[in-house]
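User: Hi! I'm working on a homework problem where we have to compare a predicted structure to a textbook description. Could you give me the structure for the chain below?
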Amino acid sequence: MPNQRDEQASIPIHIMPHGDTAGARGAAIEALNHARHAGLL
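Assistant: Happy to help. Predicted structure tokens:
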């Protein structure tokens, strides 16, 4: 992993439980909505 850039050093990093799964679920819901509106489903 590369070193942190100086301009990012003061930005705190917060860890959220199940954060990546929540993002994946949101992306899946958006894809489903898009597919329905496009008439693919």
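For your comparison, note the following. The longest helix spans residues 19-37. The CA atoms of residues 3 and 38 lie 43 Å apart. Good luck with the assignment!
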